[in-house]
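Figure 3 (text version): structure tokens given as input.
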């Protein structure tokens, strides 16, 4: 849901214009395809348990990524250190996906996505308080405003749907951890096999959860094969959309700096709203739009401040 940091600006040469445009085009493609993950998840969750949809996403993604890894040639080998980080990344992916699928099972997609879009703020807060990174008062204030925007969306959703309205916050927190692990893991392995191994580890990680669900009888964790063939198609669609969209953003980041791509990410809210209306007839209410506006404005301000800080660092660091 977010983008990784670019190479240090003080030493990296600016990429050619045509590569930046290609990166921006791939980011727009991501914003067009990524909401189809949510559409497919919501449709699949109407006829299958949330854990089954989550498991299906990772199985399909691993199957689709295996020939890509073989064709591109990075190889399937993985070091012990990378395997440990990948296991953590897969665990975060399980919780993030499960939480969001459980949310959109009953909530409008745009409402759930708007709440989950506090994830960039969560990354900043983790960096500030857990990792000791320097985050100025302006960005901290923008984070606080962004959370207030999320509360504006959560309040009516909580009244209508109950505690499930809090699930997207779980997605935001675990996806923030997912991205921080990704930053570290990117030093250990190529991004293409990283996606394959993450899907493989996450799929395997779903099995004990589903087994526990079968024993405990918790409906969301139940193991059930959909009777409707269309549900099978929607489950496959979750994995397909996830694979294509994540490949798009991976190569977008290869072609263009994250500071250039980050503002484009908010297009995802627009396309998610459109698809939610077209497929399910859901359209955000006035309070939801107000919260979305606050979250987007706060996020864009944080991006602006990140650019200011990066420019200052470029001046201060020796050339």
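Below: residues designed for each position.
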């Amino acid at each position: 849901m977010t983008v990784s940091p670019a190479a240090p600006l003080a030493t990296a040469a600016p990429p050619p214009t045509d590569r930046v445009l290609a990166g921006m085009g791939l980011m727009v493609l991501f914003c067009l395809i990524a909401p189809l993950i949510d559409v497919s998840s919501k449709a699949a969750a109407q006829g299958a348990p949330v854990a089954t949809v989550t498991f299906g996403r990772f199985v399909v993604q691993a199957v689709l990524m295996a020939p890509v890894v073989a064709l591109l040639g990075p190889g399937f080998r993985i070091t012990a250190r990378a395997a440990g980080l990948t296991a953590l990344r897969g665990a975060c992916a399980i919780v993030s996906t499960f939480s969001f699928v459980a949310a959109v099972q009953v909530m409008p997609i745009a409402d759930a996505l708007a709440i989950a879009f506090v994830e960039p703020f969560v990354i900043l807060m983790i960096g500030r308080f857990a990792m000791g990174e320097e985050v100025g008062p302006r960005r901290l204030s923008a984070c606080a405003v962004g959370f207030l925007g999320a509360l504006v969306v959560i309040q009516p959703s909580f009244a209508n749907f109950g505690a499930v309205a809090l699930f997207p916050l779980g997605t935001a927190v675990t996806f923030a951890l997912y991205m921080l692990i990704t930053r570290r893991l990117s030093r250990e392995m190529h991004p293409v096999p990283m996606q394959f191994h993450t899907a493989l580890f996450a799929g395997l990680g779903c099995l004990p959860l589903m087994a526990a669900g079968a024993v405990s009888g918790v409906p969301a964790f139940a193991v059930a094969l959909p009777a409707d063939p269309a549900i099978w198609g929607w489950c496959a669609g979750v994995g397909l959309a996830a694979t294509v969209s994540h490949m798009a953003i991976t190569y977008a980041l290869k072609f263009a700096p994250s500071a250039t791509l980050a503002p484009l990410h908010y297009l995802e809210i627009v396309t998610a709203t459109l698809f939610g209306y077209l497929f399910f007839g859901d359209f955000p209410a006035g309070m939801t739009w107000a919260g979305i506006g606050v979250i987007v404005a706060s996020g864009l301000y944080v991006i602006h401040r990140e650019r200011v800080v990066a420019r200052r660092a470029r001046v201060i660091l020796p050339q």
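Residues 1-13 have pLDDT under 50 and may be disordered.
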